[in-house]
Design brief:
The chain has one helix and nine strands, in the order βββββββββα. 4% of the residues lie in helices and 41% in strands. The relative contact order is 0.21. The radius of gyration is 16 Å and the shape is globular. The longest helix has 6 residues, at 154-159. A five-stranded antiparallel β-sheet has the order 1-2-3-4-5, with no helix packed on it. The protein has a four-stranded antiparallel β-sheet with strand order 6-7-8-9, with no helix packed on it. The model has no long low-confidence stretch (mean pLDDT 88). With 166 residues, it is mainly beta. It has one helix spanning 154-159, and strands spanning 15-23, 27-37, 48-57, 60-65, 68-73, 84-89, 92-99, 102-109, 114-117. Keywords: Disulfide bond, Glycoprotein.
Amino acid sequence: MRTFDGRAYTFQGTCWYHLFRYYTDIPCFEVTTMFESREDSTPDQVRTRITAFNVTVGNQYAIVNGLDVTTGSTGGQMTDAKVITIQEDDKHIKLHFISKDTTFPFNWTLRKHVLDVSYNGSFYKGKLCGLMGNADGDTRNDFQKPDSNIAKQVLEFGETGNCMTN
């Protein structure tokens, strides 16, 4: 994993996790990822990989599971302009959305289970949370927990407020 601020770390959780999200009084957008054990995992050494991810922006969503893509609206009928753009080819999916002045591009390569995410813009600087950190330019506070304290260990950070079963 690498946070938006560039902090590299290894995290081997198995759950749906908040990769990143932005909330005001209602969810504006969130990206969740499913981490599952790899075939070469052992009980002593769990190794995980991303197998699926969901992007929700306002009332629109995209669910990517392997190379299967499902899009829709949480309210049933889509009334707003489509905000999540998806391109599919062979074993690769490109997706992006724009919110405020910021573009969030995703590149998903199934063969290697690699999800590359970045952002370009300034509105959300320091306002994000999740496994990708807060995007404020400071790697020292990327492991900030929901209570605003900084986790000292990767496992504590990943499991505190980021795992969706908590």
